[in-house]
Amino acid sequence: MNNEQPTLIAQDVDQHILQSYFHLADSIAHLLGEYCEVVVHELGELSSSVVKIVNGFHTGRSVGAPITDKALKILKNYQKDPKQLEQSYFSTTNYGHLVKSTTHIILGGNGKPIGLFCINLNLSYPLDKIISNLMPQQNLAIPPKDEAFVANRQDMMEYSLSKAISTVEQHITPHQKNYKKAIIAYLYDNGFFELKDAVMFVADNLSLTKYAIYKHLRELKGE
């Protein structure tokens, strides 16, 4: 009997969990900009725990750097109180920069700590530069509404259909032959039909049968 297999499977699960934070690190750094450092630690080897870092120039670190004393303290606090999965705090880098940080403990498949996810925002830069990273690049007083923040699925579907109709009507009038097909195609291209009951919603609002909707969808899929 191979007794190593369960351990290997557990290690694979933990590695998958850790690596999922790599993409999150890139996303957060992209959102907050160059004044934000994001770090992923793996707790298997504390002397070289950093396995992913974005904008590491803020602290002078790179992959292979060791865990910090503050991180060790956070882990110790977690041992005393497992509810303390994250902690936010201020600190100062070796360059004398004021940093606001938050550290989140990453749990593995067995529920035990396997890593740390850390976000460090360098506050030593002028505030207007930090804020400028969060603002639209276009010279727009009000950015275009590219995303709907709604409270329920019904509102989401109504907003999406309204947007589809207004977009299509910039090119096609309601009396033209392909008007409804164009609306369905727009909704399909934007993933609308992944929503539950989306077909019936569109059928009811466009005065079509669900079979007509399914037919158009098959054509769009090339079936």
What does this structure look like?
Helix 4 (153-168) crosses helix 5 (179-189). It is elongated, with a radius of gyration of 25 Å. The protein has helices at residues 5-32, 69-80, 127-132, 153-168, 179-189, 198-206, 210-221; strands at residues 36-42, 50-54, 86-92, 98-107, 113-122. The protein has 223 residues and is an alpha+beta fold. It has 2 domains: 4-134, Beta-Lactamase (2-Layer Sandwich); 153-221. Strand 4 and strand 5 form a beta hairpin. It contains 7 helices and 5 strands.
Counting copies of identical and different chains, the oligomeric state is single chain
Shape: elongated
Q: What is the gyration radius calculated from CA atoms?
A: 25 Å
What is the total tally of β strands? 5
Reported CATH architecture of the largest domain = 2-Layer Sandwich
Which structural class best describes the helix and strand composition?
Answer: alpha+beta
Question: What is the element string, with H for helices and E for strands?
Answer: HEEHEEEHHHHH
Compute the separation of the termini in Å. 48 Å
Low-confidence stretches: 1-9
Instruction: Supply the number of structural domains.
Output: 2
Brief rundown of the structure:
The protein has 223 residues and is of the alpha+beta class. It has 2 domains: 131 residues, Beta-Lactamase, CATH 3.30.450.20; 69 residues.
